[in-house]
Design brief:
The protein is α/β, with parallel strands linked by helices. The protein has 12 helices and 9 strands.
Length: 278
């Protein structure tokens, strides 16, 4: 039986349909599952956090390669199916919202931990931000996301896709797109194509930042006003325009540029000057 047949069989057997509200698009390609397993570089020493295991398609393959899988699922129907399908100590199922669970508590004694998941797309950004900003001891994050999100995260300054999420993810990790996944590899088929990204989590951020609050505020201000020049967009209640102009002048950065033209190093340099740390 291939994955398409197995997925249909499981849904029929339990009298279920994919729940759109929960972003349920089940992976039905054996080949893509194999590639995810291979390219996420899992070893038998790794504990895997799987977000949204659904019917257990990836879970099954992850269980074969890793030490343990901790699967976090919000849909009680899926939790029931997983419990019936996999009778093994290697699988821990957590019924709950990934955005609300205490990951630190979950991975406290787990050693080498990697995230591998086909994410629910309606909360891709909050999930990535939770995984990266809270600095859990994760080695890597391999996730299926909407193709457009993957392209945004991997874009370069000066390109229209480049945004706050690009700078933030590249601060904490080294991201790359590892697999292109056309929409027909899911049941039901979503309206967008997808890709799998691997984010290798850095031991320390990619640039030296003296005050992260100021750094992230700059980024937020800049991209909230993308059309304005940075002399206007980077200023805020806390940072007057004159101060921004002075720092840009000192750093030799053209004040007529826009937020998307600045590299992560530029943001770090500006933030560090603003707090007198450079
Ligand atoms: N892993 C399965 C696969 O590849 O076929 C299903 C992936 S499906 C795109 C996303 C899964 O995330 C669904 O099973 C859905 O119920 C689950 N989900 C949605 N919101 C969630 C949340 N806040 N916390 C945990 N799981 C969630």
């Amino acid at each position: 039986m291939n994955l398409y047949e197995e997925t249909r069989m499981l849904l029929n057997q339990y009298g279920l349909r994919a729940n759109k509200r929960l972003g349920q698009n089940f992976l039905i390609s054996d080949e893509i599952v194999e590639q995810i397993i291979e390219k996420s570089e899992i070893t038998e020493n790794d504990t895997i956090i799987e977000i949204g295991p659904g019917l257990g398609t990836l879970t099954k393959a992850l269980l074969e390669k890793s030490k343990k899988v901790i699967a976090i699922e919000l849909d009680p129907n899926m939790v029931d199916i997983l419990k019936n399908r996999f009778i093994t100590d290697k699988l821990e199922i957590i019924y709950g919202d990934v955005l609300k669970v205490d990951l630190n508590e979950i991975i406290a004694n787990e050693g080498s931990v990697k995230v591998v998941a086909n994410l629910p797309y309606y909360i891709t950004t909050p999930i990535l931000m939770k995984l990266l900003e809270e600095r859990y001891a994760l080695k890597s994050i391999t996730v299926m996301v909407q193709k457009e999100v993957g392209e945004r995260i991997c874009s370069e300054p000066g390109i229209k896709e480049y945004g706050a999420i690009t700078v933030t993810t590249n601060y904490y990790s080294a991201p790359k797109i590892i697999i292109d996944v056309p929409r027909e590899n899911f049941l039901p088929s979503p309206e967008v194509d997808s890709c799998v990204m691997k984010l290798d989590v850095l031991e320390k951020p990619s640039v030296m930042v003296a005050n992260e609050k100021v750094f992230f505020e700059l980024i937020r201000n800049g991209f909230n006003h993308r059309r304005k020049t940075i002399s206007n967009s980077l200023a805020s209640g806390n940072v007057p325009k004159e101060k921004i102009m002075q720092v840009l002048g000192e750093l030799g950065i053209d004040e007529k540029l826009r937020a998307e033209d600045l590299s992560i190093e530029d943001y770090a340099n500006i933030a560090n000057r603003l707090v007198g740390a450079a």
